[in-house]
Every structure is written in C-alpha cells, then in structure tokens.
Amino acid sequence: MSGHEPDETWWKIRSVYQIYPRSYRDANGDGIGDLTGITQGLSAIKALGAGIVWMSPIFRSPMADNGYDMSGYREIDPLFGTLADFEALLAEARRLDLKIVLDIALNHTSIDHPWFQAALSDPTGPYRDYYIWRDEPNNWQSIFGGPAWSKPDGDDAYYLHLFDKTQADLNWENPAVREEIYGAMRFWLDRGVSGFRLDVVTVISKPPGLPDAPDPRPMPLYDLLAGGPRLHEWLRDMRREVFDLYDCVAIGEGPGLNPERAAAIVNPADPMLHMIYHFDFVDHNGSRQGRDWDRVWFKSVFDRWDKGIGSNGWNSCVVGNHDLRRLIARFGDGNADPSLVAKALAATYLLQRATPFIYQGDELGLSDTTITAVEELDDVWAKTTYGLARSKGHTEAEALAKAVAMTRDHARTPYPWTPEGGFSLATPWLKPTPNLGGVDLASQQADSHSVWAFYRALLELRSKNPETWIFGAYEDLLPAHESLFVYRRGARGLVCVNLGGKACALPGAVTQLLSGLTCLHRSGVASTSLMGAWSTQIWA
C-alpha cells in the first residue's frame, strides 16, 4: 500500500457496519437480539465486505432509551448475554478479521446508575458532584421534549438531563468523573475491542454558570451547547489517557458541529478524535426529506465536509443510522423502483473520501415500517412526542401521525434474514417491517442484481483501488444540477447518479470524460449520454 498517505490505517481502509443489537439476530429465542446472535451473523457482514462492526450499546441499562441510558459501564446487560458471550463474539470477529467498535454514552448515565442512586441517598457525599444540580432550573428544554431539569422525590434540587429525565447529565468538571469514564474505556480496550463511537460527546462541556439560553428549544440548544469551553481540553486528555495507549479508533458523534469546528478536533497536528460522526444529513423540520427533498443541498453536504476535512484529517460518511427514518423513505421517491433508489443512494456515500457507515438493513434497501397504533411505538422520544401532542389538544390520529413521522422505531425493526423473517423463533420485541418482496438477506444474496450485491460490489471496488476510491481527491462536477450527482475521485474515478424521477442527459463535458474510462458498475437505464430515473454509473 506504499504511495498512499503515511498515516493510512485500518479505520480509513475499512468500512463500518452498524448493528442495533436488539434487532440484529435472536439466538436464545426470547424475541430480542443478543450477543450470540450477533456472533452468528458476523459472517454475513464479512461477506458484504465491511471490516468494522459498530454495535449500539450493550452495557447494563434499564433500557428506557434502549441502552443509551447506561447503569453500568463495565457490565454487559443480561438482555444481550454475558461477558463470556462477548468474548466469544470478539474471538469470532478476530477469526473473520473484523474490528469491533462499541457505543458508549459519555454525557449522561441512567438515574438507575449506582452513582446517581448514591447521589440521591447522600446529598453531601462524593457522588453528588458526579452530576449537575441546581436549586432552580434555567430555561433549557430537553432534546426529547419538556424541561431539561427534574427534581427527584424527596430532594431539594433539580438535576440536568439534556435528554430523557431518566438520563442524568454527568458533571465533567469533576476529575473523578473523567477518570471513571477513561477507566471504563480502558477496561473494554484491554479485552480486545478496537474503539468507540462516543455518543453526543460534543455536549459534555457546559457553559459556566449554566445561563438561560436565547432560544431554549431542544435543537437550537443542542447547537448552542456543542463544542463547549472545555471540550478540546477534555478530548485531548481522553486521547492521552486512553486512545493513544491502544491501536483503536475514537469516533465522536458531533451533532451541532460544522466542518470547521469538526476539523479542529480531527486535525493531525493536534489530534483529539480520529473521526467526527456529523449530523448534516439529519434535517429536523423534515423540509428536505420525502419526495421533494433538495438534491442540491444533499450534494452540498458531501462537498462542504470534504473541503473542510477531506485533505486534513479524516471524514466519516453517515447518511443513515438507528436514530433516523430509513434512507429510501427520507431520500427516495414513492413512484420509483425502491431497489434503484437504494442503489443510487449507495453510490452517493460509499465511494466518498471518508470511512462509510452502513446501517443494518440499508444494504437491503429496507424502508420504513408500518405503525397503526400508539401501542406499537417503542421509542421513548416518539412516546414523548405523542404525549406532548395530546396534551396540547391534538386528536389521537394527529398525535400518532406526529410520532410516526419522527419515530426512531422505523430503523430499529428486526433484521430480515429470510423471506419469513428469520430474526427469531419467538415474537420479535418490535413489529418487523413488512417484506414487500425480496427485501431480505437470503433472497438478495442469491440475486446478483440485488441491492446487497450492489453494496458488495462498491465496497470491493473501494478496497481494491484505495488510491482512487479511498484517498483520491473529491470534486462535485455538477453542484447546481437539480437531479444529477456527478463526482470525480482521483484522476480516473467518476460516479454518475440521477437522484430524480425523470431521465436526464449528461452534459457534454461529462460524456467527454467518460470516453476515456471503463464502466465498472451500472444500475437502471443508463448510457454514456442519458441517465434514467434513479440510475447509476461508476467509471474508472
């Protein structure tokens, strides 16, 4: 691999496959995914061509927020299995040459955590200072809705929770808190994990005095708090005390960061984290999603992040995850062939100058699920949205529609291994997404023209020619075009995608470039001069 960047490492070369443990595979027959099921399913990830497996939280938790409310940083939740099960998973990953990355919440713990319980039982004890308390709350609103402060029964003070009231914010100003977190991460790295995805790490540093916010609503507050005054100091400390001691990757979830602020965190001259997991593809008001989403804006996100970090540091490329509606529901077209839509979207993000993140099911073209009653909701955020809507006088149907439009349950349904489901022998914990025909792993592995096969081909292309498809310079050739996404990688790589519902002629300048190249992959009606609706061409 000589001739590439001197700091070329495994987390640049490999792609990431995200598992939602509750929904990947159930081995013990209780209807909930588990570690043994993940171990059994690792070979499917290897067959796809991904090299890093990131698992959403598996630590001990009361599961109010499906694991992001942690009550034990050094314990596996019994819902998923045991430490022995996890060690078996690591052994199978090593056999398959897969790296395991864990998801860890650093901003908050569950109120069931022994630290918080000790803070309640002894307000003058050391654990009280592990959290953030005030006699009177400020005006901040929780990301999940409602006030960001709650007063426990029998207590005189309020504790801060930027998320659900069951998730109390840690006081990172306390050195003992920081060392607890560092020690927990070293605990898992010593056992063979290859890194962490650091949940909402950008909000761990709060402004001194916790003043009222000019706009206390959840998302403006999120953006205001991202990148607080001591964030860089603590990330450098974390790097020195943890990450520099291991061959590992630290991926910071960075909602609220723009490319310029993120670039400072991944700058090789002053490294804090290895990658930032940005949220620019998440549009909170929904105006850029659905059939009429803005393709020019979509392309601009790739361009801005590549210009901001691409040649200095390293980007991640995340378009879908466990918190978002499915890719083809957000960026698709209900009148188009869903497999063509899924392939076109794959071509937009798998071949960027970045480490691509694939969320389980996106490689099959899985779409949103069907929810017809509030009882079918599991997501705590969606339930809060429903309750707030009802409290404001919305009808049952209106409140349910609001919850369904934003619920994270769409992305958390059980993984479809076979046409019949194959996830579990029992009733799954969450109603599966209806299989509209062929949207399952077994069917698609047997079909050389499937979405899964297309993903596999692009990942293979990326790994076999890293000079072009991993490290090659990026250039959007048609940034203002309303449907066509045509971008160059390196000296010879060219990707052409029609993201719209009508056929489009390729501009003459693009067809001239194609004349000296070979078409490597094609999906839909595509020629050297015309791109059919949702068609894709990849040239080199």
Task: Summarize this structure briefly.
The chain has 540 residues and is an alpha/beta fold. It is 32% helix and 16% strand.
How is this structure best described in words?
Helix content is 32%, strand content 16%. With 540 residues, it is of the alpha/beta class. The chain has three domains: 11-109 and 175-372 and 416-460, Alpha-Beta Barrel (TIM Barrel), CATH 3.20.20; 373-406, no CATH class; 472-539, Sandwich (Immunoglobulin-like). An eight-stranded parallel β-sheet has the order 13-12-11-5-2-1-15-14. It has a five-stranded antiparallel β-sheet with strand order 16-17-18-22-20, covered by helices on one side. Strands 7-9-8 form a three-stranded antiparallel β-sheet, with no helix packed on it. α12 (338-349) runs parallel beside α16 (451-464) and α13 runs antiparallel to α14 (396-406).
Features:
540 residues; alpha/beta; TIM Barrel; Immunoglobulin-like; eight-stranded parallel β-sheet; five-stranded antiparallel β-sheet
List the helices and strands and how they pair.
Blueprint: H1 10-13, E1 16-19, H2 21-24, H3 35-48, E2 52-55, E3 59-60, E4 72-76, H4 83-95, E5 99-105, E6 108-110, H5 114-121, E7 133-134, E8 149-150, E9 158-160, E10 167-169, H6 175-190, E11 195-199, H7 218-225, H8 231-241, E12 249-253, H9 259-266, E13 275-277, H10 295-310, E14 316-318, H11 327-330, H12 338-349, E15 355-359, H13 380-391, H14 396-406, H15 441-445, H16 451-464, H17 466-469, E16 474-476, E17 484-489, E18 493-498, E19 504-505, H18 508-514, E20 519-523, E21 530-531, E22 536-539
Parallel strand pairs: 1-2, 1-15, 2-5, 5-11, 11-12, 12-13, 14-15
Antiparallel strand pairs: 3-4, 6-10, 7-9, 8-9, 16-17, 17-18, 18-22, 19-21, 20-22
Helix pairs in contact: 3-4, 9-10, 12-16, 13-14
